[in-house]
Write a structure and sequence with these properties.
This protein is an alpha+beta fold and 76 residues long. The chain has one domain. The chain is built from 3 helices and 2 strands, in the order αββαα. A hairpin with a 4-residue loop joins strand 1 and strand 2.
Length: 76
């Protein structure tokens, strides 16, 4: 991992006792919070389940509305 990427990782780590997830600091704090909350909620459901997919998709939709500049195809 190069130095630039190392610096972009937040010291906050989510843990569900089976894996650890680093949180990048490149995105605004609100976006990070939405994504980490969705990830934490989604882990309550089976991988590939519709409920899990909807939780993540809803988080992405909220972020796309508030921060369209972080998505491909955005015209500013």
């Amino acid at each position: 991992m190069n130095e630039e990427k190392t610096e972009s990782l937040d010291s906050n780590i989510l843990s569900d006792n089976s894996r650890r997830i680093g949180v990048a600091t490149i995105l605004p704090a609100e976006v990070r919070e939405i994504l980490t909350n969705a990830a934490a909620e989604a882990t309550q459901y089976d991988e590939g389940s519709l409920k899990r997919k909807r939780i993540i998709d809803n988080a992405i939709s909220r972020i796309r509305l508030a921060y369209p500049e972080y998505f491909r195809g955005h015209r500013g």
